[in-house]
Specification:
Length: 428
Amino acid sequence: MPAIVLVGAQWGDEGKGKATDLLADRVRWVVRYQGGNNAGHTVVLPDGQDYALHLIPSGILTPGITNVIGNGVVIDPGVLLDELSGLEERGVDTDRLLISADAHLIMPYHVAIDKVTERYLGAKRIGTTGRGIGPCYQDKIARVGVRVQDLLDEKILRQKVEAALEFKNQVLVKVYNRKGLDVDEVTDTVLEQGERFAHRIADTRLELNRALERGETVLLEGSQGTLLDVDHGTYPFVTSSNPTSGGASAGSGIGPGRISTVLGIVKAYTTRVGSGPFPTELLDESGEDLRKSGGEFGVTTGRSRRTGWFDAVIGRYAARVNGITDYFLTKLDVLSGLERIPVCVAYEVDGFRTEDMPMTQTEVHHAVPIYEELPGWAEDISGCRSFADLPANARAYVERLEELMGARISAIGVGPGREQTIVRHEFA
Ligand code: GDP
Ligand code: IMO
Ligand code: MG
């Protein structure tokens, strides 16, 4: 039985939380495979209650689902415990959450280093979420990271923290003029935190493969988006993991052959948080209007999201690098009321037209969007529940995006609520 991967097709915040929630009643497992609490996934339940999830898979809100924080995720133990107690206080049953023994831990020194390096970079900063994501993945790749399983062995944990701080404290004190951290204080804090979730630690790759063998469906929930991928995104203005579908196998231990559907979540326009190139960005009033009507403010940091028109070059690129089988187009309702809607169909780069993502980062910075204008619609579409209910121009907009992206649009979001969705084709 299949595994389904859900990926963001743009720069994050496409509506992945809502899409996971929508699919949750059809699957038995929901797995996060990369990233950490840099993510902010919003889910609005049918009773109107909304939840912002950062580290815990969005499937936690659906009873009967087993949720997994996979080996590819980086975990801040304090954030994990806070998020769990926040959910429990609101009556959410958190019993079904497993944590990979191989996931890496975000330590206090990772958070400290993330913040000081960004400050040091000044105008050249990436605009990270300041949650220690990059420094934690650096340690993982450098093979000096601390993993969840180390919480089960105090001696090993202390040795690892000691070895890490020997170097990190030099950097914090001598390079950045900050206070160093104390080995015992750091170790004792994470040990105490670890005790509170030790019962959740599991060999999740074994559990997930057994579930697939039993015929249960697994949903792999990506965070961030294709253009924030460290390999396929707008490097260096990216996150330090692989949100693209290839990352789903590495970050969960599920073989690629198990994956039957790759669902790309794409917003009907474009947003980005943090620094880096954004060809269709609107710096005028229409950008401000999109920000307001779409409520484009970060779930994690509260920062204003940069806004722009839909970019089909990106849509095509995401379809290719992820092998997207179906698109879920979100926030179509936000475009209601516009007379004409520009859609970027290609870029002009240094005098040449290209329909594809340019090869070099310099070219991406130079890319000038070539727009096609589509007629808008005045009607409020938030109550539409079938494709036929949509005004003709909204249908034409969807069909044109589908043609430009080269993958079918199987679902359309017309509001934040679970039920505010039009399903055009069955895809899972
Ligand atoms: P994620 O990080 O991809 O899960 O997305 P975020 O939760 O950060 O941002 C998406 C925002 O759009 C959230 O506030 C959602 O509630 C909201 N949203 C999702 N789908 C739709 C939709 O179809 N229409 C509208 N109006 N809002 C939506
Ligand atoms: P979700 O899952 C939007 C951005 C940051 C910054 C860059 C690197 O909600 O879509 P990091 O802290 O990861 O080292 O920051 O990536 N970023 C996101 N932007 N949505 C997210 O997550 C993001 N997670 C990270 O703003 O530009
Ligand atoms: Mg988000």
